[in-house]
Amino acid sequence: MSIAQVISLINQMEADGVVARYAIGGAVGATFYLEPLATLDVDIFVAFHHQVGQVVVSPRPIFDYLTARGGVVEGEYIVLAGWPVQFLPATSPLVEEALAEAVTVDVEGTPARVFTAEHLAAIALQTGRAKDHARLLQFIEAAAINAERFQTLVRRHGLLDRWQTFERRFLQGPS
Amino acid sequence: MTFDLQRIFESKCALRRSLAQRPVAEKLLLLDVLRDRALAIRAAAKRQAATMGRESRSEHRAKPRNA
After folding, report:
1. Is the Cβ pair B20, A108 closer than 8 Å?
2. Could you tell me which residues come within 8 angstroms of residue A71 by beta carbon, excluding any fewer than 6 positions away?
3. Mind listing the pLDDT tens digit for each residue in A44-103?
4. What are the beta bridge partners of residue A80?
5. If residue A85 lies in a helix (H) or strand (E), which one and from where to where?
6. In this structure, are residues A48 and A60 in contact, taking their beta carbons and an 8 Å threshold?
7. Residues of chain B contacting A35 with CB distance shorter than 8 Å
8. Alpha carbon of A58 to those of A31, A66, A75, A87: distances in Å?
9. Between β-strands A42-47 and A83-89, what pairing exists: parallel, antiparallel or unpaired?
10. Between chains, do A2 and B29 touch, taking CB under 8 Å as contact?
11. Is the separation of the CB atoms in A171 and A147 below 8 Å?
């Protein structure tokens, strides 16, 4: 049971054309840049092949493909190699861009596509839960993001207000 | 070993930095271990909560009249 097995399976699924592109996000994605972050699930963002006339995107082909290869559906998750995996469509321009610009990292001979550190940080800022703020702080404290690229994303995706609030709350000392 | 908070914080930062710099494959293996631990702790906490619930229910149970 390992994440490496999950990544191999997702690579194969992409190669077989079930999804157009995938990238790892969430805590597992952040672990590519930071210290390992304890998590119970794997977030995989996916782009689908565009089909004429199709309005609603369904995760069904993914679930069918993976259950045929030993995956077990549990609610919104599919359990692969012991890990609950959640497949998420790109629902915002920021996530679409993150998916398009994701980078491939070699994991002992297995390619793994993962969001850039700056996109992971910007998505954390956009999502805005307590754990996302904690993750964004980790990226900043570890100097794991390029500040200029991150600020460009913040401005381009209308996150300036959120960033200023975050800065006031977490990065500036009490006045 | 020290109780100097400043040094404790510095050593925590150093540990996080050294973990972050490990090869990705090694960090992914650590995720597997962390998840196994988290699940074990969660299961133990559930068992403990269930045991405590049973004990507190039996404490408040009315005794039979002829006991």
Report:
1. no
2. A9, A63, A78, A79, A80, A85
3. 999 987 776 666 678 899 999 999 999 999 999 999 999 999 999 999 999 999 999 999
4. A83
5. strand A83-89
6. no
7. 16-17, 19-20, 27
8. 29, 14, 15, 11
9. parallel
10. yes
11. no
